[in-house]
Please model this.
Amino acid sequence: MFRVSPLLIAVALAMAGSAFAQDPAPAAPAASASAVDPKAMEALDRMGKALRAMGPFSVHADSTAELVLEDGEKVEFGGAVDYQVVPPNKLHASLVSDRREREFYYDGSTLTIYAPTSGFYATLPAPDTLRGLVDKAQNEYGIELPLADLFLWGTDAAPTSQIKSATYIGRGRVDGVPVAHFAYRQADTDWQVWLDKDALPRKLVIVDTTTAERPEYTAQLDWTKGETVSNDAFAFKPGDDDFEIEFFPVAAAAKEGGQ
Model:
């Protein structure tokens, strides 16, 4: 399955009020649910290659995420995430949302998760690549890094074989930047992406189609390439009032909870 994780909605790394202005464009072409436009699939290939070929970069994302309450009512949460990344193995992310604040520090050998409001932090051993970090954080510790798909597109961890529908919608603009707009459908997710001239995603819309309420996640991204970042940015330094806690792997935590 092509990896566009609905878990992004759960972490609510987003900000309300995503601005999107689109030039007049032709209506979306009529297509059957199984139609796969080669142009739309080629766009995914270009996006993956562009992301994997990037050197040091920073990206800011403003997003909104909908959560379905027990009675079926949808509520919206907002926030923002800022990344500083030096491929292949350094990352700092700052997440501020309506529900939580988190800092992520990855220096190529360890991942530290820090909660500024409480002062708690945990440091975990990590693989020596960003892709390995994303996989281990999610599969072993149940940690979904903000916008984790940015580090998987263009790899075999994001296969396109289960895309049922792929459509080129037309041209548009995101914050004044000319973009090409594409829509995709999978078994449990409808999603859209707006790509700029460098094939970088400027906007994402992800809809969870497994429930009647169809909660939606929207992110708008602003990229800066080629920034010089000190290695100090990727190393966590606890303050005098911070407190280290132990973070158990998912399997160990489940076993302990069942005792």
Notes: The radius of gyration is 19 Å. Residues 38-52 form the longest helix (15 residues). The first strand starts at residue 57 and ends at 68. Helices lie at 7-11, 38-52, 130-141, 250-258.
